[in-house]
Amino acid sequence: MAPEAKLFDKEVAAIASCSKPLNELFSSLPTTIFEVMSKLAMEHSSVNLGQGFPDAEGPEAMKQIASKAMYDFHNQYPSLLGVPELRQAVARHSEANQGIPVDWVTETLVTVGATEGLAACFLGLLNPGDEVIMFDPMYDSYVSMARRSGAAIVPVRLRLPDFSVPLEELAAAVGPQTKMIMLNSPHNPSGKVFTRTELEAIAELCIRHDVIALCDEVRAPGVWRR
Q: Which GO terms describe its molecular function (predicted)?
């Protein structure tokens, strides 16, 4: 074993043997279902449908650009909001693909993956005592991120067989402490795409009650193929 690996193992062992309590909020959370199912899939050599693993390595042009950037020494601290050229491209993409004009200077932010962006929104927008409406079933990371901000989760159960939104129950779930509605379409884990009627109802509630809609659209580029 390399010296670096031995040192790392010692550091991990030291942390594990520490008598000081861990963060109570995170230590009380269960192991993510993705870790559980991936472990079982590996143990039994089964097909893992628990996570969205892409079946391609990504666009060739993007890989070439990333490789060139490494050799061109683009590895220093950029603006904390993201590289201006990338933010400008994000704004152009938003207007071209979603019809939403975006001011790249004041309305764009680049994060290291969507999960960090969502965590920043939860931590930056929510206060202890606020309530977040989430559609159940839900992506489990939403719960831990929202709870870390001190907010309470208000679940609204989607109805089988088509995972439709119970609009009356959703309206009843909105109260004086409601700060945010977490919207994920296409929905994870069901794959449901919210209908125009459902989206308009959610938008109307947000406007009427001054509620933030946090939209996780990580799968949006593939919607048209469905």
A: kynurenine-oxoglutarate transaminase activity; pyridoxal phosphate binding
Q: Are 90 and 102 in contact (CB under 8 A)?
A: yes
Angle of helix 114-125 relative to helix 140-148, nearest 10 degrees, comes to 40
Interval 34-45: pLDDT, tens: 788 888 888 999
The domains of the chain, with CATH numbers, are 78-110 (no CATH), 114-219 (3.40.640.10)
Among 118, 157, 168, CA closest to 134: 157
Per-residue pLDDT tens over the stretch 105-124? 999 999 998 899 999 999 99
**Separation between Cα atoms, residue 31 and residue 28, nearest integer Å:** 9
| C-beta separation of 179 from 198 below 8 A | no
Q: pTM of the predicted model, to two decimals?
A: 0.79
Amino acid making up residue 54: P
**Mean of pLDDT over the chain:** 87
Please say whether the beta carbons of 166 and 198 come within 8 A. no
* Contact of 186 with 220, CB cutoff 8 Å: yes
**Which residue type is seen at 144?**
S
Pairing of strands 131-136, 212-216: unpaired
